[in-house]
Write a structure and sequence with these properties.
Aminopeptidase, about 35% strand, about 25% helix, single chain, alpha+beta, 8-stranded mixed β-sheet, about 350 residues
C-alpha cells in the first residue's frame, strides 16, 4: 500500500510504521467476546426487531435426525412468536468427509435437497462456507425457513442475480489513492461516523451515538479520512465472535460489517482496501485453522458486493430478506428487509 498513508492504526499493513512484531494483536485466539450485533451468538434466539429466529448451533452435526430436530425447534419458536423467518448456522464435516459413510451420505443428501415448502415455510440452503480446523475439513451451512411472504418475488431475485454478475465483472486489485489516510477509529470520530451511517435509512440496529460509541470501543473499526479536510469519509468494522463448537474446537467468526462511504468519495476502493488490511491481520493473528472470515453484502445494489469481491472474496450464498436494512437500491425490492450476498474470504 505504497501510496496510502496509514496513521496510528496499530494494525498490520504495508506502509504501516507499526511492525508485525511490535503491534498488538487485533484478533486474539483467546477471544472473550461471544456475541456481536451482526454475527449473533451461540444458541437459538428470537430476534423480534428483525422478525426472525436466529441461531448458531455450537456443535458438530453428523446425523440427519439431530439436524432435523434443531430445525423443528427453531420453526416452532418462530411460529409461537409470530416470526416469519428462522435462520440457523450449522457446523458440519465437509461434503467430501460426509460421503465416506452411509450416515454421512444421508446427511449430505438432506442438505443438498433442503428446498421447497414444508410446514408452511420455504426451506432454503442460503450459504455453504468451507473451512478447515484441527479436526479436519468442515463447513458452516446457513439453513433458512421463511414464510412465503418473506421471499422476494422472482423478478426481484432475477434482477439481483444480474446485479451480482455486474459486481463480479472486471474485478481488479484496489487502486490506492494518496488523497486518503486510513487509521483506527477513535471515540472522537463517533459524531462523524453517525453522520456517515445516515446513508442507511433502515438498519438492523440503530446507528445512534450510543451504539456507534459502543462499536468503536469494543470492535476493530477502520476509517478513511480525506487528506485535504481530515473528515471521516469511509468506515469498516470487523466483528469477531469465538464459538466453542463441540466436536470441532474453537471457531472464529470474523464478519466485515458496518461498511459505508460518503457518496462523493465512492469509487475510490476505500472499503476494499480496509477489508484487505483487516484480512492481513486475521491471517497474522489467527492463521487459517478454525477461522471463517466473511461479509454479508446488500444484494439490492452491486457496489457492496463488489467491494468485498475486490478484497479477494468469493460469493458463497444469499440470505433471503435477512434483516432490516435499506439504503440506495437498484432492484425493485420492497419493504424494510433486504437480501444479502454472503462473501467468504479464504
Amino acid at each position: 500500500m505504497r501510496n496510502l498513508r496509514h496513521i496510528n492504526t496499530g494494525i498490520r499493513g504495508e506502509g504501516n510504521p507499526a511492525s508485525a512484531q511490535r503491534r498488538a494483536a487485533v484478533f486474539r485466539r483467546q477471544h472473550e467476546g461471544n456475541s456481536s450485533p451482526s454475527i449473533g451468538a451461540a444458541g437459538i434466539r428470537l430476534d423480534s426487531a428483525n422478525g426472525r429466529v436466529k441461531g448458531i448451533i455450537p456443535r458438530l452435526i453428523t446425523r440427519t435426525r439431530e439436524l432435523v430436530g434443531i430445525l423443528d425447534s427453531a420453526r416452532e419458536m418462530a411460529r409461537e412468536n409470530g416470526a416469519d423467518r428462522a435462520t440457523l448456522r450449522f457446523f458440519l464435516p465437509s461434503f467430501g468427509s460426509l460421503e465416506q459413510s452411509g450416515e454421512g451420505r444421508e446427511l449430505a443428501s438432506f442438505i443438498r435437497n433442503f428446498s421447497g415448502t414444508a410446514n408452511g415455510y420455504v426451506n432454503v440452503v442460503e450459504g455453504v462456507l468451507p473451512f478447515a480446523c484441527e479436526a479436519g475439513e468442515m463447513m458452516m451451512v446457513y439453513l433458512a425457513m421463511n414464510e412465503p411472504s418473506r421471499i422476494s418475488p422472482k423478478d426481484v431475485l432475477l434482477h439481483e442475480q444480474g446485479l451480482r454478475r455486474i459486481a463480479e465483472t472486471g474485478l481488479h486489485a484496489p487502486v490506492e489513492n494518496g488523497d486518503y489516510a486510513i487509521r483506527s477509529a477513535q471515540m472522537g470520530d463517533v459524531p462523524s461516523l453517525v453522520e456517515l451511517y445516515s446513508v442507511f435509512t433502515q438498519y438492523l440496529i440503530s446507528l445512534n451515538e450510543e451504539n456507534v460509541a459502543r462499536m468503536v470501543e469494543s470492535t476493530p473499526v477502520l476509517v478513511a479520512t480525506s487528506s485535504s479536510s481530515g473528515k471521516v469519509v469511509s468506515a469498516l468494522a470487523a466483528e469477531h465472535v469465538a464459538i466453542e463448537v463441540e466436536g470441532a474446537g474453537t471457531v472464529h467468526l470474523i464478519e466485515l460489517s458496518e461498511a459505508a462511504t460518503s457518496p462523493e468519495h465512492r469509487g475510490k476502493n476505500l472499503c476494499s482496501i480496509m477489508a484487505r488490511i483487516f484480512l492481513e491481520n486475521v491471517d497474522a493473528d489467527l492463521g487459517r485453522l478454525g477461522v471463517i472470515a466473511y461479509a454479508e453484502a446488500r444484494a439490492a445494489h452491486p457496489a457492496p458486493t463488489r467491494t468485498f469481491l475486490q478484497a479477494g472474496g468469493e460469493i458463497a450464498g444469499c440470505l433471503n430478506k435477512h434483516c432490516v436494512l435499506e439504503s440506495e437500491r437498484m432492484s425493485a425490492e420492497q419493504g424494510d428487509f433486504e437480501n444479502l450476498n454472503v462473501v467468504q474470504f479464504r
